[in-house]
Amino acid sequence: MAGVIQTTVRRSMPASLLLRVRHRSPGLASCLVGGALAAGLGLAVFTVLVTLLWVSSPYPDSGPGGALHIAASLWLLAHGAELVRVDTLSGAPAPMGVLPLLLVALPVWLLHRAARDTAEGGARADARLVPGRTAWAGVVLGYLAVAAPAALYAAGGALRPSWTGTVTCVPLVAVVAAGAGVWTAYGRPSGPLEQVLGAVLPRGVRHLVLGPDGRPGVAARAAAAGATVLVAGGAVLLTVSLGLHAGETRRAFGRLTEGWSGWAAVLLLCVTLLPNAAVWAAAYALGPGFLLGAGASVTPLGAQAAPLLPPFPLLAAVPDPGAGTALHGAVAALPLTAGVVVGWFVGRGAVTGKGRFGVWAAGRTAGAAAFAAGLSGVLLALLAGLAGGPLGTAALARFGPVWWQVGLATAAWLGLTAAATALTVRAWRLRRTHGRGDRRHGPGRAGRAGRAARAGRAGRVVAPPRPARRMPRPRRGWFGGRKPGRNAAPVAEDEPYLLLDHDADDGDHDGLGNTPGAPGLPDPFPSDDALSPTAHNSRAGRRYPEDAERPGFKEA
């Protein structure tokens, strides 16, 4: 009998392990399938478009095999991989590195959606969140499992991908997009961002990028607004220039191709290149301009004669060669407007009482405006680097804006304008707030707003209350089904937060002097033994920071 009992005890432990493996294996399998499905859908979209254009073309250059090779190459180009054309007249391979920015949106969206849905664990409201590392690694591996044979197949065509760009860009896009999707599924926790910012930014400016409530900081919002104004203004300049050269734009379609199928192909190519043209126009307004070949620069001060280029419709918007006029100089209003927008965001945030300091001093406000201008320069430099590239050899080796020149020009233009605007907005809002507080509480009593305004002018620190966290809304799944909220499902008990471990305790996580586990505050990273045995089966048993702020909440 004792032997039977001992055998039973020995078999119970492997059974428990087998149960855990059986419980976890569908999570990794679904992540692999989700990544492969995202890659397959992207390839299918490009294949359908290229096949339709090939079928409708009256004079196709190749058979269906050539069309499939081009579709695979274009799919890799959407990830940033440079293409190489081998069937040139000179016999030398010609690189084609201009990435249509609109194509990038498709693989990034598919990867983000696949990683988010697989991390959420399914469409059921009580589904358990898949561990972050499992979801991220599974989606990336599944995506690369489809990308590898697609790259091998595309290498046999006339327009083949560069192996250096393929090996570098495709995994990079998969890792970043899938990581963002898993981060979204876990409710966008600020812990990973705080660790990244802590490694690259000093502590004094960290709160300008990421606020204490996990939302973007004042400088981050201002930089995003400035970059948006520049790109949107570039799109407006492009539209105006195309309208002024409408006749040349219309004639370019007829000179480049014939028939409605060819016109549709050229129009589709122009649509995918519209974001690139908007970035080029923004670079033109900032001053550095762009290149139409080696030594052929186009700036507001003047445009040099470009080498022989095809009659492409978007190139009709390029100014004529010669010295610039007052009309060309009027484009300087765009960076000035962007600087005013950045300064307005910073000046408004300097007196709202959010963040580490209630009301900023004048020096801190000007420094925040300059920092936001630098962030805008980084964003524009990144866009300029992606929007240009080579279109051949020799004269066409450099095509588009120079990224570092665009970044420096953006920081210079926006830095001066944003600092002056931020100080003006700050002074105006302080005076308005001070006057409102005096009128509300009488001439002899200054209210809280008046005291905060005077404390800001004196440089003292006013600690604000911690803002409430936003509750997520339900989302729709792949096929229209309603998905649960990001924090609605219980998390796997061995990994409650995303990809990273708990944040290192540096003493002040939120900039208010409050630390996790301090008296009166819930611990945002509870340990497993701090939870009850039923804590992982329902939300009522789990301790979340946002739960303590809900009316009527009682801790178990």
TrEMBL record:
For bias type Basic residues, the affected ranges are: 434-443, 467-476
Ordered alphabetically, the record's keywords are:
Membrane, Transmembrane, Transmembrane helix
Q: Where is the composition biased (Low complexity)?
A: 449-463
Q: Name one Pfam family in it.
A: DUF6350
* Positions with biased composition (Basic and acidic residues): 543-556
Q: Where is this region: Disordered?
A: 434-556
Question: Which InterPro entries does its entry note?
Answer: DUF6350
Q: Classify the source by domain of life.
A: Bacteria
- The portions of this protein that span the membrane are 28-54, 66-84, 96-115, 135-155, 167-186, 218-242, 263-286, 326-347, 368-390, 402-425
**Keyword Transmembrane in record:** yes
Q: What is this protein called?
A: Integral membrane protein
- State the organism named in the record: Streptomyces pseudogriseolus
Give the organism's phylogenetic lineage.
Bacteria, Bacillati, Actinomycetota, Actinomycetes, Kitasatosporales
